[in-house]
Amino acid sequence: MIELSRDRTAGLDVAFHLHSQTNPQQLRAQGPAVIERGEGPRVFDSTGKEFIDGMSGLWCASLGFGNKRLAEVLYEQSKRIGYYHTFFSRTSHEVSLLAEELSKRSLIDDPHVYFATSGSEANETMVKLAWVYHTVRGNPGKRKVISRRKSFHGSTIAAASMCGLQTMHREFALPIPGFLHVSHPDMYRGMNEGETDEQYSDRLAAELEQMILREGADTVAAFIAEPVMAGAGVVSPPKDYFRKIKAVLDKYDILLLDDEIVTGFARTGNWFGRQTTDMQPHMMALAKGLTSSYFPMSAVVMAPEIYEAVAEFNKSGGFFGHGFTNSGHPVGAAVALECLKIYEEMDVVPHVRRMGDRLRSHLREIAANSSIVGDVRGVGLMFGIELVENKDTKAPFAPSFGAGFKYDTFSVENGLVVRATGDCLILAPPLVVTEADVDQIAERFGKALKQFQASIGR
User: Of 36, 52, 62, nearest to 412 (Cα)?
Assistant: First the structure.
């Protein structure tokens, strides 16, 4: 184990490390938070301060930190074969078994699985597969991809282009041509006064159809969506939203791509978010909870017509022209198989539902006694708590005020990690939380909220 003083680590970090999603000027001024170890839902920094990580790292450490079973499997598999690839018809026992296990759980009939390393790679792979599918069917011009505003789908060029977030575009002149965005289903802010859920879904489906017709249905390949939008502030659609969206897509021979990177593996209270929202996709992208991020691994589960399109394209003897060095990594596959075993042993779905119900009850009580919590929303163990200037009118705080980030300062002081996206505070703790952990999360969240409100005279 590497032993460095906190000051030495911080100095090296500022001098040599470019961080993801971090302001470089702020890092230079304040230095990094050095996290040294983890245990269950908790992490500890270099000063010994304990935090409940209410975000599972980045939505991903579903089985918590310091999980000895996963560490042991990783070590034992590394001793057996620390790396091999899946190019040129190679495979490993673990990869083949994992493909079967994911296929059985996917709810897609007779699927095949492609493995990658990150969620960005998985989402980009789905786009490339969609292009192959349409080309084989005689429609090579169907290449455009539609996603939704405020969505997050990754950081590579195509995946970032699918994001509906200006922060993912501004530095890189994105999105690239061919990536389009429609409204997202925000039931708190997007519905018109007096509009029913079904009318709202109809309006969003009509907007999608209008875009398809405007662009030309013969140019649109796919529509990509998270079942529940994570980074947008844990936004769930109306009950019949995906049914109406799918009807439009089917009408124009457009594929539905399911980004399950956050919502997969029980996060929403079902094995997959598609069950929670009644989504019927042609492909699913999996990551994060697949290995609880103890190893970087992702997967695409595809319907048989997608796989057969790849086979048809290469019927003359070519190779599928796509691949990553670490696709189907045997160590990652072994860790993923152990994750699935643990999920089964802990009966993860009912456990998540119980813990989610408990946390929701706490959060709603906190909101009822707060002058600035406008909305508490979520499913399973993922929640968005939206701060507002005026609860009656839903008027937001001025963007320049930075309410979410100001709250975060108090949250850190109270030993709770949350995610502030604008003025929405997100909680998505590890799925292994106990009732006592949930109660402590709520206690720390409520205490930080009271301190923040007092600081702004509310």
Answer: 52
Q: pTM, whole model, 2 decimals?
A: 0.96
All residues at 6 or more sequence positions from 30 whose CB lies less than 8 Å from its CB, including other chains: none
CB 148 within 8 A of CB 181: yes
**Which pLDDT tens digit goes with each residue over 24-33?**
999 999 999 9
Confidence of residue 2 (pLDDT cuts 50, 70, 90): confident
Segment 371-400 shows an average pLDDT of 96
Strands 382-387, 424-427: pairing is: antiparallel
φ, ψ (nearest 5 deg) of residue 382: -145, 125
